[in-house]
UniProtKB/TrEMBL annotation:
Residues 557-685 form the Aconitase A/isopropylmalate dehydratase small subunit swivel domain. Its cofactor is [4Fe-4S] cluster. It is an enzyme of class 4 (lyase). It comes from Reichenbachiella agariperforans. This is Aconitate hydratase A. NCBIfam families: aconitase_mito (TIGR01340), PRK07229.1 (NF005558).
Length: 755
């Protein structure tokens, strides 16, 4: 079934004219990325040329996808907007809160037992506001999106960094913070700096043990984890057309690991095949009528150096299978070199686990190719030396591979079949013995392999490779095993060699499923009640932040002067705090606990000016809030870098912080502060940072004249009676100042709705 067909028709009906206008404005042929961006401007038809890496542009995404961990706060905020329904098609997917331990049935039941309150909340909010809901066990968000919602030429955002997976179906799909998603749900624009463009030309055709995963493993080795920052990576060439649609998705998915804004491919026959196989023939027919607009112009691909900021060329005929890691996804090693490299670096070569799945590699093709290796092991008398675990990407994939006997092949090897969920890929793995923190090696087909990522053990050496290579290495139990050249000893003492993997791009008998796990929202959500217990530790309904009273703020005390790096993780840590993502007051107990206090060099220890004692940052701030005293946070360069987590702005706001004054901001965090009704300010003179003292009290003397382009003056009153006038710059435009006056962007939206 094709979801949101009318929306797709509307996108396509406008696309041609907007692309032609963009070509006229720029005076050149366009890449696919540019075509999609210029045809999705919030203001409609393009009227100016944007500069890559410089221009901030307002876009209108076609759809939004949210996973359960991030959806909680996003939807709690949306409930404050006063809207009866989301402005664009939106879905929620329950895939992050399911821990892998025993097996699919038991693990899913355990998740329902421990997180049912959250699941029920997401279900009811989705039903009320017109949001599609995918139940726990339905599948991993990005695989489900690819199977049901992604469409060539579309623009989507999602509250997860691997939203980029949808590039496999020709989209520009970008991971964002919840605050950005809420804006679009409420009908506002989504702001993005117009990306730079990296072109990757693929020639030839893969063969033998090489897979689509090896393309991105190779690219990661070339660009490193930062090389794609601020850029869209666009793949093209005959080699790109030779890849399957889900293989393209794998490449785009792991593009998040090179820092890319997103990655994408032009529409081709493999995408058409996938659309038809997943019951979306109508979308394929529409796309076929738009082919010239759903890929880059011929001249761009013929002379890529003229149109991309950087060009990389990879020959698939000669590309080797890779194994990347440990501890970073860009440490790329061809399999033929791994044995020597592992020995030189003292990496454990005994492999304990092989894990297949995640949003990166959990398609039918992935499972069938890995199963062809497992089947050989059974036929040739080989017993796996490592444990096996599999997370199918969706219930549709799981049901189909069970029907086709693929699951049975794995089960003959003693494989543990986990729930259709993220599981070990995001650390949701209760691995026996991990608490001993022993040095060991695992191989997996996931996207990230940072220390402690999978099992919480900092000494687990995790290596990323293709599903079929995971199967081969796990069967051998040896990290240095090269199935292209090496043999294994079977149960008869014979030397046997594994043949190259074989698999089906799509199931020959078609996909099938009894219950995909989807729940349609109520046709009229006005009667749906959203119940949240006031005693809940996991969820808390939000109250609107107070509007500005129109007076100058005086008597504000210093909460903390942060020294050095202060990321969103320092401001709002993740890990065990994940369970409180839907409870603002509870998660606020981690606020700024990772920031280094400039006055004592310690974390989570600041002076309480009320009694002179030192205490944890949240405790001291709560004391100020109870006394009705506003506070400010002072920070260093690039304050708030990292994931665009809205909690890092909401928590200080909730606790009573009214301003953040820093040397410089990470842009997304600065915007998030603005949206929550806070003052995000920068020192006009960075040297003024050194003037801030531990006992300072601050008066904002000209806040009544708050206006675009006009700096604010803050008087810093020191304990010895002296004062310093601090000039603070800001980037607020007229609309953003209205956010501040209203108390938050959502308050303003609600006010406008009620006007």
């Amino acid at each position: 079934m094709a979801f949101d067909l009318d929306m797709i028709k509307k996108v396509y009906s406008q696309m041609g004219d907007r692309i032609n206008k963009a070509k006229e404005l720029t005076g050149k042929p366009l890449t696919l990325s540019e075509k999609i961006l210029y045809s999705h401007l919030y203001d409609g038809v393009p009227n100016e040329e944007y500069k890559r890496g410089e221009s901030y542009v307002n876009f209108a995404p076609d759809r939004i996808a949210c996973q359960d961990a991030t959806a909680q706060m996003a939807l709690l905020q949306f409930m404050q907007a006063g809207k009866p329904k989301v402005a664009v098609p939106t879905t929620v997917h329950c895939d992050h809160l399911i821990q892998a331990k025993i097996g699919a049935a038991a693990d899913l039941q355990n998740a329902l037992n421990t997180s049912n309150e959250v699941f029920n909340f997401l279900d009811s909010v989705s039903s009320k506001y017109g949001i599609g809901f995918w139940k726990p066990g339905a599948g991993i968000i990005h695989q489900v999106v690819l199977e049901n919602y992604a469409f060539p030429g579309g623009l989507m955002i999602g509250t997860d960094s691997h939203t980029v997976n949808a590039g496999g179906l020709g989209m520009v799909a970008v991971g964002v913070g919840g605050a950005d998603a809420v804006d679009v749900m409420a009908g506002m624009a989504w702001e993005l700096k117009f990306p730079k463009l990296i072109g990757v030309k693929l020639t030839g055709k893969m063969n033998g043990w090489t897979s689509s995963k090896d393309v991105i493993l190779k690219v990661a080795g070339i660009l490193t984890v930062k090389g794609g920052t601020g850029a869209i990576v666009e793949y093209f060439g005959e080699g790109a057309k030779n890849l399957s649609c889900t293989g393209k998705g794998t490449i785009c998915n792991m593009g998040a690991e090179i820092g890319a804004t997103t990655s994408t491919f032009g529409y081709d026959d493999s995408m058409e095949r996938y659309l038809r196989a997943t019951d979306r023939a109508e979308v394929a027919d529409l796309a076929n009528g738009m082919r010239e607009h759903l890929t880059g112009d011929d001249e761009v691909y013929a002379n890529p150096e003229k149109y991309f900021d950087q060009v990389i060329e990879i020959d698939l005929d000669t590309l080797s299978p890779h194994v990347n890691g440990p501890f970073t996804p860009d440490l790329a090693t061809p399999i033929a070199e791994m044995a020597e490299k592992a020995k030189a670096n003292d990496w454990p070569t005994k492999v304990e686990w092989g894990l297949i799945g995640s949003c990166t590699n959990s398609s039918y093709e992935d499972m069938s190719r890995a199963a062809s290796i497992a089947e050989q092991a059974v036929a040739k008398g080989l017993k796996p030396k490592a444990d096996f675990g599999i997370n199918p990407g969706s219930e549709q994939v799981r049901y189909t591979i069970e029907r086709d006997g693929i699951l049975d092949v794995f089960e003959k090897l003693g494989t543990r079949i986990f729930t259709n969920a993220c599981g070990p890929c995001i650390g949701q793995w209760d691995r026996a013995g991990a608490d001993k923190k022993e040095k060991n090696t695992i191989v997996h087909s996931f996207n990230r392999n940072f220390a402690k990522r999978a099992d919480g053990n900092p000494n687990t050496h995790a290596f990323v490779t293709s599903p079929e290579m995971v199967a081969a290495i796990a069967i051998s139990g040896d990290l240095g095993f090269n199935p292209i050249t090496d043999t294994l000893t079977n149960d008869k003492g014979e030397q046997v060699k594994l043949d190259p993997p074989k698999g089906e791009e799509l199931p020959s008998k078609g996909f099938d499923v009894e219950d995909a796990g989807y729940k349609e929202p109520a046709a009229d959500g006005s009667g749906v009640e959203i119940a949240v217990s006031p005693d809940s530790k996991r969820l808390q309904l939000l109250s609107p932040f107070a509007a500005w009273d129109g007076e100058n703020i005086t008597g504000a005390k210093l909460l903390i002067k942060a020294k050095g790096k202060c990321t969103t993780d320092h401001i709002s840590m993740a890990g065990p705090w994940l369970r409180f993502r839907g409870h603002l007051d509870n998660i606020s107990n981690n606020t700024l606990t990772g920031a280094v206090n400039a006055f004592n060099g310690e974390t989570d220890s600041v002076k309480n000016q009320l009694d002179g004692s030192h205490g944890a940052v949240p405790d001291v701030q709560r004391a100020y809030k109870a006394a009705g005293i506003p506070t400010i946070v002072v920070g260093d360069h690039n304050y708030g870098e990292g994931s665009s987590r809205e909690h890092a702005a909401m928590q200080p706001r909730h606790l009573g912080v009214i301003a953040v004054l820093v040397k410089s901001f990470a842009r997304i965090h600065e915007t998030n502060l603005k949206k929550q009704g806070m003052l995000g300010l920068t020192f006009a003179s960075e040297a003024d940072y050194d003037k801030i003292q531990e006992d300072d009290v601050f008066d904002f003397v000209d806040l009544k004249e708050f206006a675009p382009g006009k700096p604010l003056t803050i008087v810093a009153k020191h304990a010895d009676g002296s004062e310093d006038n601090i000039l603070a710059n800001h980037t607020y435009n007229a609309g953003q100042i209205e956010w501040f006056k209203a108390g938050s962007a959502l308050n303003l939206i609600k006010k406008q709705n009620n006007a």
